[in-house]
Write a structure and sequence with these properties.
Order of helices and strands: HHEEEEEEHH
Oligomer: single chain
Helix content: 25-40%
Radius of gyration: 35 Å
Structural class: alpha+beta
Strand order of the largest sheet: 5-3-2-1-4-6
Shape: elongated
Largest sheet: 6 strands, mixed
Distance between the termini: 151 Å
Strand content: 15-25%
Number of strands: 6
Number of helices: 4
Length: 215
C-alpha cells in the first residue's frame, strides 16, 4: 500500500510539472472597452492580408513571430499608409493573433515595446490576441455595424464611436520619371544652324560668281 501511495504522489508531481508551463504560457486578456483599445493603439485600420512570413529567429528556439502585410483600405488612427506590416506571436497561447491571407480585418496595432516576442520581428508595429482585432466583411468602405463576421453579432455602437471617422490611405507614391534627353533632340538645333550657315555661304559664293561673269 505504501508503495502505491508513493507512486501516486510521484505521478501527481510529474503531472503538475508538465501542466504548469502550459498554464503559465496561456494568454489571459484584461477586459478593455473599445475606447481604451483604440486609445492604446498607435495604428488602427481595416485592410486585407496579402502575405505572411516568419521573422528571422533561432531554428532551435521558440517559434519566431509572424509578420503580416496588409493592404489598407480605411485608416482610423495613425499614418494613412497604403500598406502596413504588423507582427504578432506565432502561437495563440502566447497571445498571437492568427490572421488569414486574403481576409479583411480591423487591426489595432501598437508601437510600444513588448515582452511577448522571443525575437525582434524587425517591424515597428505589433498586435496581440487581446488588442481588439476583428475579422470583417470584404470591402473598402468605412465599417458599419453589419460588417462583423465573428460570433454573428454586429459591430457595437461603442466600437464604431471609438473608431471615429476613417480616412483613405495615401496612394503609393511612384518615383518621378526622370526626363531622358534624346541625342537627336540635343543635336538638331546645331544641325539647323550649320545647315543655315552652309546655305548662306553657298548663296554668297553663287552671287560672287555671277557678278564676275557679268564683268
Amino acid at each position: 500500500m505504501l508503495r502505491h501511495r508513493v507512486l501516486t504522489v510521484l505521478l501527481l508531481l510529474a503531472a503538475t510539472v508538465v501542466i504548469t508551463p502550459g498554464t503559465a504560457c496561456a494568454c489571459s486578456c484584461a477586459p478593455l472597452g473599445p475606447a481604451e483599445q483604440v486609445g492604446r493603439a498607435a495604428a488602427v485600420f481595416t485592410g486585407t492580408v496579402v502575405s505572411a512570413r516568419p521573422a528571422k529567429g533561432d531554428p532551435l528556439g521558440p517559434r519566431p513571430p509572424i509578420i503580416y502585410t496588409f493592404r489598407a483600405d480605411q485608416v482610423y488612427k495613425g499614418r494613412a499608409d497604403a500598406e502596413y506590416q504588423v507582427a504578432t506571436n506565432a502561437d495563440s497561447a502566447a497571445c498571437g493573433y492568427g490572421f488569414t491571407v486574403g481576409s479583411r480585418y480591423l487591426v489595432l496595432a501598437s508601437d510600444e515595446k513588448t515582452g511577448l516576442f522571443d525575437t525582434d520581428p524587425g517591424v515597428p508595429l505589433h498586435t496581440a490576441l487581446c488588442d481588439g482585432n476583428l475579422a470583417v466583411r470584404a470591402g473598402e468602405g468605412p465599417l458599419h455595424a453589419q460588417d462583423a463576421i465573428q460570433n454573428g453579432e454586429p459591430l457595437s455602437a461603442g466600437l464604431l464611436s471609438a473608431l471615429g471617422t476613417a480616412t483613405r490611405p495615401r496612394p503609393t507614391s511612384s518615383p518621378a520619371a526622370t526626363p531622358v534627353s534624346s541625342p537627336s533632340a540635343a543635336i538638331s538645333p546645331w544641325l539647323y544652324a550649320v545647315g543655315a550657315a552652309a546655305l548662306l555661304a553657298l548663296a554668297f559664293a553663287g552671287w560672287r560668281l555671277s557678278g564676275k561673269r557679268r564683268m
